[in-house]
Amino acid sequence: MGSDLLGIGTSGVLAHQRLLQTTSNNIVNTNSQGYVRERTLVYTNTIGLGTGDMVTSRIIDNYIQGEVQRDTSAYHASLSRFEQLSSVDTLLGDKSNSVGAAITSYFKAFHTANESPAEIGGRKVTMTELGGMLDRFHTLSAQFDKQTDNINKRIEDETRQVNGLLTSINDLNYAIMRTHGTPEENLMLFDQRDEAIRLLAEKMDIRTIPQANGSMLVNMATGHSLVLDGGVAQFQTTAGNPDSRSIELKVTLGQNEARIDHTTLSGVMGGLFAARDDLEPTKRELGQLAIVMADAMNRQNNLGMDLDNEIGENIFSLPSSKGLPYSSNSGTGAVTVNVTPGKGGEVTSSDYEIQFSSATSFDVFVLDKQGNRTSLAAGTTPPTTFEILGHGISVDLGGTPATGDRFLLQPTKNAAAQIQQLITRPEDLALASTLKGEKSSNNFGGADIKLNGIFNTGAGSGFTANTLDPAAPQVVKIDNSGNYEVYAADGTTLIGVAPAATKGQNLMASIVNPFPAGTLVYSDPKQSPGYEFSITGSVKPKDNFKVSYNTNGFADNSNGLVMAEMQNTLLVRKNNSGNTSNDKMTLSGAYSSLVMGIGNSTSETRNQLKANEGKLLQSTSIFESVSGVNLEEEAANLIRFQQSYAASAQVVSTAKLIFDTLLSSVR
């Protein structure tokens, strides 16, 4: 533009008009989501007087913007995780869903039944409470499954939103590149793209790399490319491997496909996966609790006698589950996991894995919460049934596995939903002892016979169908030397002799045959004959004692008392390497531990959420101080630019007046 007065004024008018447009745009977009403050720089004319080039740009700090994106991901990760965990925490805190309260009511009813074991009334109350406790297990298990399903649906919904955002960012990249560096360049497109990137950062942890052509590359924090100049990635949820309900995430870009480790995601999706991972151990702990309770009650009921003079039956069914094959398996093998009756106290809440080194050789591993494997045992087939010693489970192997095939075993995950009630009649509760001890009325000594415990009424024991085997030890006689002679039911068939030095204590573990230099008759009395008793007090030669089946012992509640005391017995194994009394909890204690586990995770996530919220507010505040619109500043600029515009217009008016004066002077 020339250096004449008119040209100078015109350049000023145009420059300040541009400045007024920029300021006005800032003012009207002060509340627009994602808007970044713009600034127009006016340069002097390099070849004359007046203004020269004008450049409008966005005022933004890329480092702070990246910090906001990272803080956004962290905040939404903790928020989504907290929302899911607090829902589970509320569920467990509701007394109407409390398994612990149901267990307490169940054992309270047992105490009531023990007060009058021969009457049906108390037994009916116990059966009602038993059914109520089982319903609580089923309901809570179903609620956990529902929570997992809800999380999976949320993950699928978020996946679709992520794909939409990636497509939008890619489209905006192309729109920006078409006009980048030209007068037609629209800075609002940058704002829209930044907002889409911010929304994407809410979903997962990302990194952005600006390009010279105006486009923006987007990568996951793990390095996976999401948006490139030549294409855009898309996410997809897939069935878990091998657990199809534990959906996984994969990303596809062109011909490339990769599985995503969900522990690296952050954002809403990372929080959802983390909450699902938090819920999985709780399911298994509930299943472990159900197994231990059912097996303990079964075992004790089997040791007692019901109102029909019969040895008690199982109260509950024990669960079994199919081993889940990995997708890479090439053989036809199959695996079934069963709880070993009588060994429920050994069951842990862990998952296991079987890997075949050949069609007939396999290794067993226990998995921790992170999926890390620890070798437990190795075996070969046949036989096709293999017990995992010390863990209360056995494995049935079938089919023909191939080398390298693997199976995931989840014995406790769905156990709480699978356990069912087997007995339906109050009479089936075996409150009475199966045995009774009596001393002869003709005894001269003051000793009594005392049952120390009944441990086995099934295979290998001294019991047959609802009675004692005639060949089982049932009669004790004191010989002239004070030794304890143990006979079969006929009183003449000698089974073994315990020396007087034993003082009659634990006779089944002490008798030998022949006496005195023979071998122990019973190496493990808890298995065979399945019971133990002692003679306590002073005995005399010819004293006679008898052990017999407790026929018509309806008023007896000795087995019922043991069942009721299970409320205070250490039964549930803690999930560590040991299997001792110090490694056990009560049933109520195990449920409390389960509830506390979720409560602690919820509290930890709440604290993390508050910290992440504070960090996000801080970084957002810094970003807004740079890129946000300050209305006071813009109002001042508006007045200043108005005045400058008016002054420039006055220059133009003055130039026109001078020009008109010159024209009139030459007429």
Automatic annotation (TrEMBL):
One of its GO terms (molecular function) is structural molecule activity. InterPro entries: Flg_bb/hook_C_dom, FlgK, FlgK_helical. Its main location: other. GO terms for biological process: bacterial-type flagellum assembly. One of its GO terms (cellular component) is extracellular region. Keywords: Bacterial flagellum, Cell projection, Cilium, Flagellum, Secreted. Residues 626-663 form the Flagellar basal-body/hook protein C-terminal domain. Residues 85-316 form the Flagellar hook-associated protein FlgK helical domain. SUPFAM superfamilies: Phase 1 flagellin. It is found in: Bacterial flagellum; Secreted. Belongs to the flagella basal body rod proteins family. This is Flagellar hook-associated protein 1. It comes from Aeromonas cavernicola. The lineage of its organism: Bacteria, Pseudomonadati, Pseudomonadota, Gammaproteobacteria, Aeromonadales.
